[in-house]
Every structure is written in structure tokens, then in C-alpha cells.
Amino acid sequence: MLLLAAAFLVAFVLLLYMVSPLISPKPLALPGAHVVVSGLLLLRPDLRPATDARPLTALPQALAPRKRRPRGGSPAALLPGTVPSGRASGLGDPPPLHLAPPEAGGRCDWGQRQPAGSWSARGSVTGGSSGIGKCVAIECYKQGAFITLVARNEDKLLQAKKEIEKYAINDKQVVLCISVDVSQDYNQVENVIKQAQEKLGPVDMLVNCAGMSVPGKFEELEVSTFEKLMSINYLGSVYPSRAVITTMKERRVGRIVFVSSQAGQLGLFGFTAYSPSKFAIRGLAEALQMEVKPYNVYVTVAYPPDTDTPGFAEENKMKPLETRLISETTSVCKPEQVAKQIVKDAIQGNFNSSIGSDGYMLSALTCGMAPVTSITEGLQQVVTMGLFRTIALFYLGSFDSIVRRCMMRSAKSEPEDKTA
Ligand SMILES: NC(=O)C1=CN([C@@H]2O[C@H](COP(=O)(O)OP(=O)(O)OC[C@H]3O[C@@H](n4cnc5c(N)ncnc54)[C@H](OP(=O)(O)O)[C@@H]3O)[C@@H](O)[C@H]2O)C=CC1
Ligand SMILES: CCCCCCCCCCCCCCCC(=O)[C@@H](N)CO
User: Fold this and answer.
1) Which of 79, 142, 212, 320 has its CA 20 to 30 A from that of 406?
2) Which own/partner contact pairs does 356-364 have at CB distance under 8 Å and 24+ positions apart?
3) Which UniProt keywords are given for this protein, alphabetically ordered (predicted)?
4) Annotated catalytic, 278?
5) Model pTM score
């Protein structure tokens, strides 16, 4: 019996070794890379520091991205006199740039100018300056990347830009801000990304962080909430990815990161609108990875647990008691910690990015037909799955009992409410 198990293991390892060239991507060099964080990251090969071990200039000229004029947006849509022609020279001291895509709502900004009145902040600027996306941008900037930040609120963008710039490791690095809604109009997203690529060069890494959560009981959530979350969390990841993928395939370089959630690995009470939008990302990522792997483009899906961000604070205002109690099974992470893990996994080209022991177990348990990026990962999944399913049954039992207790509690308090 033992012998049989050992033989099986040896055969399995041998088999995995045979396919290993196919499953082990080369790490991406971040210094000088252009990263877009919606976050997105973009790279300028000519501005890579000398320390860069794998210069992109080594690519054959035929693979270099072609420069194209934006299709939908007429050049007249750009504010006159603000866009330098051709590739920007001396990015260390870039001229102010305002790119307004058609139908307004899209802007591209080096951050030099004062925010226009129409973009004045509503509420506190801390909102945009502490999410997972901002921390991912900081993590990449610390490693020498060029950053394009994408979000809607211009004041929050400029605030985040200032903060990120504190972490520069050389004076050539640039943070470009683009104000656009990534979930509304594909042409608009494509235009601003093209314009960003004209300034900073082709995108090496795109991090799709834009997203939100609206928890609530199924029957209490507005029908429009289901549409909104699908639009921001799912289409908001499709559009920027669709806009960068052709160039990545042409250059045979690229990383696309999707930020799903632990709630994209299991369905939970209160997340009937949120969970499906995060599950959808996994389907997109698997299908896309199979398409782009031969082009040396790697996809990463991150499944963070609850993370201490402005978005999480907003979510907590609406959380049903059940959702809160179930979520408390795992502890709340720091966005810096989540960002570090995401960037590390993206650089290595890992398909899966998770945090903590629950995250590890969930990922192994729900690996399904997801691509495997290392032999160890494949082996661990095979060996641990039965054990983790057993543990999961206990978790599910405890979640059910939380839901039942909450129901009994509200049934008890309801008659009192009526008499009150
Ligand atoms: N925090 C958590 O507990 C967890 C979060 N996640 C996921 O991580 C991602 C980031 O979350 P978190 O940092 O908490 O969120 P935050 O709300 O703190 O930040 C979200 C960022 O996305 C931008 N954004 C939102 N909608 C759009 C849009 N339509 N177009 C462009 N930009 C947009 C926001 O800027 P602006 O509003 O100005 O557009 C903001 O910069 C989300 O996808 C979330 O679902 C996953 C697991 C756990
Ligand atoms: C072996 C099996 C182990 C199972 C462990 C299960 C743990 C479940 C906890 C789920 C927490 C949900 C986090 C959602 C975070 C999120 O996306 C929002 N905060 C976004 O704002």
C-alpha cells in the first residue's frame, strides 16, 4: 500500500517535471516597468534604470508595439496645447497634460495643475488614498516602476499620486493619473489607455483593482445594485484588460492582475450581488490565461480577505449581522500586506494569489481547473484537497448555525417591535 502511494507520487512528480517548462513563467522585472493600477502599471523601456536585468529593448523590433492614434476620440478632444507630440521627452519634468476623452468624464493628468472646480472633492480625500490599489501602486513604485493610476475622483487621484511619489527610488519615475470610470464606456477606457501608452510606453502590468461591495439580503438589495456591481467589478476589469492585451501579446510581455475576493471563492450570506461579480472574474481569468500563455502573458487572480480600506469601511455600514459574524471567521488584513502579496505573485506569474492560512486552504480547495504555476502548487493541491474539504464542512456547519441563530433572534425581537 505504502509502496503504491510512493510509486504514484514519483510518477506524478515525473509527469509534472515533464510539463514544467510550460508552467514556470520567468519573473517580470519591475524596475522601469509601466504599471497601470485601477489600478494599472505601464513600463518605459528607454527609462529603465541600468540595474534592470532584462531590458525590454532586447525584444525584436517587429514585436515592438505600434503607435496608433486613438480611434473613437478625435484629437480635438484633447485640451489644446497640452499634449506634447510623440513620446514625451524628459519625463522627470513632464509638461502638464489633460486628456479629455469624448463625452467628458475622462482625463489624464500629470498632477501639476490644480484640480478643476467641477472635480472638487466631495467628502474626505482619505477615501482614495488608502485602498488596495494605492498600496499596489506604492509597492511597484518602490521597485522602480512607472505608474498610471486610474480612478474616477480626480482629487483622490492627486492625493494618492503625491503619496506614491514619496517612495521613488530614482528621479526618472513618474506617476500618471487618469480620471475615468472603467465600467462605463469601453471606447473611453481604450482611448485613455492609448494616450497613457503614448506618454509612458506600453503597459507591462495591469492591476484591475477598481471595485466595490454592497452587502445586504437578496430581497432587500435594489435590482440596480446587481447591475452596478457586475458592471464595476466585472466589466470594469474586462475593459482595461481588453485595451492592453493586444500590445502585451505583440510584445510577448505582460501581466494582468484581477482582484477578486475570498467571496469570489465561496458564496456567503449577504453577498448575493457581490460574490457573483467576483466569481465572474475567475472565469474570465482562466479563459484569458489559456489564450495568452503562449504569448508569455500571465494572469493573476487575487483573493483577499477583509482588508482595512475605505471601501471596507463603507461596506461595514451596510453589512447584515450574519455577514459580519461569518466574515469575522478571518481577521482583517492590512492593505499593504495584501498589496505586497499581489505584486509578488504577479511578478512571478502565479495564477493564484491568496493571503493567510484560510486563503491558502480556500485556494487549494477551489482550484478546480485553474492553471497551475508550479510543481509544488500542483502537488499540494492533490495532497491537501480531502483534508481541506473536511475542514470546510465544519466551517459551513458553523456558518449555517450563525444564520439560524440570527433568524431566531430576529423572530424573537419582531413581536416586541410590533407592540412597541
Ligand atoms: N477591502 C476589502 O475588504 C476587500 C476588497 N476587495 C476588492 O479589492 C478591490 C479594491 O478594494 P478597496 O481597496 O477596498 O476599495 P476602495 O473603495 O478603498 O478603493 C477602490 C478604488 O477603485 C476606484 N474605483 C471604484 N469604482 C471605479 C470605477 N467605476 N472606475 C474607476 N475607478 C473606480 C476608487 O476610486 P474612485 O471612487 O475615485 O473611482 C478607488 O480608488 C475591489 O475590487 C474590492 O472588491 C477584495 C477583497 C477584500
Ligand atoms: C478550508 C476552508 C476554509 C474556509 C475559510 C472560510 C472563510 C470565509 C470568510 C469569508 C470572508 C469574506 C471576505 C470578503 C471580503 C470582501 O471582498 C469584502 N470585504 C469587500 O469589501
Assistant:
1) 212
2) 356/305, 356/330, 356/331, 358/262, 358/305, 358/329, 358/330, 359/262, 359/303, 359/304, 359/305, 359/330, 361/388, 361/391, 361/392, 362/262, 362/265, 362/266, 362/303, 363/265, 363/303, 364/388
3) Coiled coil, Endoplasmic reticulum, Lipid metabolism, NADP, Oxidoreductase, Sphingolipid metabolism
4) yes
5) 0.81
What residues make up the domain containing 174? 25-116+123-394
Pocket of ligand 2 (CB under 6 A): 213, 261-263, 268, 305-306, 311-312, 315, 327, 329-330, 358, 361-362, 365, 388, 391-392, 395
Q: Is residue 320 part of a domain?
A: yes
Q: Does residue 369 form part of some domain?
A: yes
Q: What is the interface pTM, i.e. ipTM, of the complex? A: 0.99
Angle in degrees, CA 300, 99, 35, rounded to 5: 20
Instruction: Please give the chain's pLDDT, 420 residues, in tens.
Output: 777 777 776 776 666 666 554 567 888 888 888 888 874 444 443 333 333 323 222 223 332 333 333 333 332 222 222 223 333 332 233 222 222 233 333 444 433 322 222 222 212 122 234 699 999 999 999 999 999 999 999 999 999 999 999 999 999 999 999 999 999 999 999 999 999 999 999 999 999 999 999 999 999 999 999 999 999 999 999 999 999 999 999 999 999 999 999 999 999 999 999 999 999 999 999 999 999 999 999 999 999 999 999 999 999 999 999 999 999 999 999 999 999 999 999 999 999 999 999 999 999 999 999 999 999 999 999 999 999 999 999 999 999 999 999 999 998 887 655 554
Other C-beta atoms within 10 Å of 16: how many? Answer: 18
Residue 418 lies in a domain: no
Q: What is the CATH number of the domain that holds 253?
A: 3.40.50.720
Number of domains in the chain: 1
CA atoms of 129 and 228, how far apart (whole Å)? 23
162 has catalytic annotation:
no
User: Which of the ligands is closest to the CA of residue 336?
Assistant: 1
Mutational test site, ligand 2, from 358, 384, 390, max ligand atoms within 8 Å of CB: 358
Angstrom CA distances, 166 to 108, 139, 174, 235, stand at 21, 12, 11, 32
Identify whether 167 is a catalytic site residue: no
Assess if residue 13 is contained within a domain: no
